[in-house]
Amino acid sequence: MNGASMDLGLFLIRVTVGITMCVHGINKCFGPGGITGTASWFESVGLRPGLLHARTAVVTELVSGLLVMSGLALPLAAVMIAGTMGVAASTDHRGKGFFVFKGGWEYVAVLALLAIALASTGPGGWSLERSLGWAFHGIFWGCTAGVVGALTTIMASASARARERDNPHR
Length: 170
Known about the structure:
Layout: H1 3-30, H2 34-44, H3 50-70, H4 74-90, H5 106-121, H6 128-132, H7 139-166
Helix pairs in contact: 1-2, 1-3, 1-5, 2-3, 3-4, 4-5, 4-7, 5-7
């Protein structure tokens, strides 16, 4: 495969993942119910305080989406995406199986793994990283993004479950 083909493929993956993340962040803020509705929904899946988690999710999704689209700091973006999608998998999608049309975790897993893959491969030639001469990618960066994303998921999930145990009627 020649360089231009690889650059095009990575660019299309980056733009797809980046736009998806940005639209999710925008929807949490401006979709039905707005940030208040998102906060209530977060509370219902155990993420408390809901407003803090909702605002954090909006910023994380917007920033990670913009970083991925531009091809800048992909390991950081991958951690943000893997962590956010991991939390979604372990809260809202937990216990619902694989298929997203049944509420399962397939969709969030695909986004998380694509982000980690991009941290491994790098953004390709059509990116800000390439323009700046940066090279923050490779197996180390991909594995680091995966591990830190998993740790983020574990911490947020444990916190949500602890709150659920401490206040079961909420």
